[in-house]
Amino acid sequence: MRFGEDGSICSDVPDRDCAPSRREVAGGLLAMAAFAASAPAQALHPANHPVRLQPNLALVSRHVQWTSGEHGIEIAKRAGFPAILWTVRKGAHIEPAQVERELPRLVRLSHDAGLATPMIITNIGDAQSEGAARILATMQGLGISLYRAAAPRYRYDQPIAPQFAAFRDKLTGLVALNRTFGTTAAFHTHAYADTIGGSAWDLWMLMKDLDPRYVGLNYDIGHVTAKGGAGWRESIRAVGDFLHSCSIKDFYWEKEKTVPAGQWPWRTRLVRPGDGMVNFLDFFRYLQGIGFDGPLETYFEYSVEVPGLARPFDMLGTDYGKWKLEMPEDLFVGFLKRDVSFYNDVWRRALTTPPAPAFSVKADEGAG
């Protein structure tokens, strides 16, 4: 593992600098321009956006809930993250009742360590959520405008349209509250069976007539791909100005051998990035093409094999004060570094290589 001049983690590919060189970027942009010249006009993104040379990776603080907030900051720094996203909800370093004291303290310590805090993670779902006004007022005082919000769930035993209408009313109320504090709710696109937003389309349809300065999406490319496959290409374009942040993780479909009789056997298996089905290269290209500068919420929702441990270790962990790290700390940091390096490398490749020709998701079975 090597480090660039700005402290970011480099790929382990020999003789490579961490950040793309000017020659690489220029060559990549020229290649993309050549591709653009031959593509239909409606398929192109505006070319006047500034392009980040490295992804805006942000460690979700849940992954360091096995230790103190202060030590968690040190871990994030060692792993090469430029930012950390503090979680404000029960079981986290910051309980909602303690937000006025603990969030400013941990944000200050993060900034002292050189880590940005562009967003926090909450369970706020509407203006009536417990502690919502207190959390947003604290954010306002810290100059943090973006927070992750939680979407409600479908009731499959009831008509969908009335549920949509009820949630639309709640969104309108939350927009009004956010306008008061200058904050923005980014609703997470969970792909659980009954969660509104897994495909992104339904959340966007509910908020498309509202003000994107105060509400939008935290677009989880792993969950959206699990819900709709390659349909992410359309949904993320529909989202437009409502795209405020993204969450990155990988998965593949796995057929379980033992399921209850009559139950569909396929399940989403979350895995380390690069081992699954998510098309990070094209996803990053799209973000670069629109000049996306929001945080990339970085998750480690998979298990790892640890020498001497009888069972795989769950990197997602659990509540602060309950979760114990069952491996050497350096090994844990190494797992984080591996993913940071992976994302940095894919982002660089997306910058410096043109997109591949369009393809069909249907396998080619040959002629005839």
Please characterize this protein's 3D structure.
- The protein is α/β, with parallel strands linked by helices.
- It has one domain (50-352): Divalent-metal-dependent TIM barrel enzymes (TIM Barrel, Alpha-Beta Barrel), CATH 3.20.20.150.
- Helices cover 36% and strands 15% of the residues.
- The chain is built from 10 helices and 12 strands.
- It has helices at residues 22-38, 69-79, 99-112, 132-142, 160-181, 201-207, 221-228, 232-239, 280-289, 329-352, and strands at 57-60, 83-88, 119-122, 146-149, 184-188, 215-220, 243-248, 250-255, 266-271, 296-298, 303-304, 313-314.
- The strands form 3 sheets. Strands 1-2-3-4-5-6-7-10 form an 8-stranded parallel β-barrel, surrounded by 5 helices.
- Helix 2 links the parallel strand 1 (57-60) and strand 2 (83-88).
- Helix 1 (22-38) crosses helix 10.
- It is globular, with a radius of gyration of 21 Å.
- It starts with 21 loop residues before the first helix and ends in a 16-residue tail after the last helix.
